[in-house]
Structures are given as C-alpha cells and as structure tokens.
Input
Amino acid sequence: MSEFEDIEKELQALQPKPPTNAFTARVADALGDSGDISLRRVSSPHGVKKSRSKKLYLFIPPVLAIAASLVWIFYIFPSQSLFLPKSPDTTIPESQPSLSTFVSAEDDEASPLHGVSLQELQAHSGGPDQWLAGPAGPAAPNPPGG
Amino acid sequence: MNTEPIWKSWFARHGAKLLLFARQQARNPHDAEDLVQEAFVRIWRLYGHTGEVAPGLVYRAVRRLAIDWARSLDRRKIREQKVIADSPFHESFKFSLEQDERQKAILAMVDRLPPEQKEVLTLKIWGELTFDEIGRTLDLSLNTVASRYRYALRKLKDWLPAALEDAPQVEKKKES
Output
C-alpha cells in the first residue's frame, strides 16, 4: 500500500466541516434526557473518588451500631461465654466435704489411711469410735490371728 | 466541575465524519443532517450509558436509515414529482487559503469516483474505520472493501496530475 501513501496523506489532510451549532442543538433536543443520563454515569476520575468516599461514609453508622451492641452484650453478660458451648458442671456441692479436709500434712501412724489422721477419719467415717480407737476401747475386736 | 454531556465531545469528534458519510447516502445536506441525527439518537439511547459508542455502529445505522428513507422518498417522489438538487462534495470540507485549489481538485476527483468506491474511501480516510468495520457497515466482504479502496486510490493517483494541470486553467477562465 506504500504506492498510495502520498495520496492517502493528502486526503487525510482534508478536514470535513464540523457540524453547525444549530445542528448540534437539534441533536441535543432530540436526545433529551438520554444525553443527561450519560453525563451522570460517566464522570471524571475526581468525581469517582468522591463517590467512593461517600460510599465509605455510608458504612460507618452500621459498623458503629454493631460495635456498640457487642459492647453492650459483653457488659450485660460478662461472665458467660455466649459463643462457646457450655462445659459440664464441675463445681463441688458445699454439703460435701472437700478433699482438702481429708488430707493432712502430717502422717498419723495410727491411721490406716496415709495422709489422713485418725481423728479426721473418725469424724467423717460414721463408724463406731471404738473400732477406730483400738485396744483402749471396751469392745475392741480381736486382732486377726490372735 | 465539567458539566458538558459526554455525547457532545463524542459528537464533536465524529459528527463531521458522520455528516460527510451521510451526504453520500442522502439526496441533499438537509436529509444528511436528519439521517445523522436520527441514527445518532437511536444508537446513543441504546448504548450511550456506557459512555462510549463505537462509531461503526452509527455509520451502520446511517446507512440502514438511508436505505429505508430512500425507499419512502422514491414513493413520495413519484407522488410529488419533487426535484432534488445535489451539492458538490467539496462543500463538505473546510479549506486553507494557500492550498485551496489543490484541495478542491482532489475533492473533485473524489466526487468523480463511482459511489461504491467513494463511500469506502470516505469511511476509510475520514471515518477512520478498519476494513473489517467498513465491511460490516456496508454489508460487504473484506476483500471487496479492500479492492474498492485500492481501485479508488489508483484512480485518484492516475487522475491527480491532469486534475492539477486543469485546475489553474479553470480558475483563470473564471477570472477572465
């Protein structure tokens, strides 16, 4: 196509007359609202930034409301975990003696249980005191093998 | 803030080329303006919300409308026997004073081209469409478009020397 390059350039140098203002006004009238709608939808980059920041502002109130409601919930129910499953009850009833009352720091040689004194065992066993008192009692049983 | 509608910049860029093409499809400049207005408004209402419309769509719409209008005008012509005057091709262009005669001679040559070659040349040179787009606009194959364009340029190149020799003589005759 190089043989026609000169004539192509010469033709391209010729510029058609632009539409008259009257004709452009006619087209504007014919377009009506369609022309304005396309203006609103296509905006400058600065306008796009503005609209994005406006969208961000719209998200702020719901986020604040959610945060406030979470704070309120944790304030009302501070000791309960709302989101974890409940574990089985591990508390010890107050009517039962705690294990610490059975455990003595000092060993009682007369006691059959290690770490529990004879007196403590007597207090909690409910059995006859004589059985635990040993040979000193009036109705002490005979020792095995004797 | 720029408040100009987006279609105005589009129309400022393509309006002159569309009118030039429409002038070849219509019978007079007024019809050409009507064609461009109707085609542009139809296409812009459909695709204008995207912010950019492919010029090829509007050229195609201009051609389709021109065919439809020509049929109805023919019927009307039979009824009214109305005589429609045509205007020369160079009236659609703006000229610089120093190259006025040469440019007019070139455009006179373009005007002498067969219509099917002239419309391909117009769409390629001033419409800046690709051969593929021209093919779709005129419902022609790619090869037909390319060959018509080549024939047009060949004729212009062959005619140009003689046309440039004749141009000053014509001007001198006018002056005398």
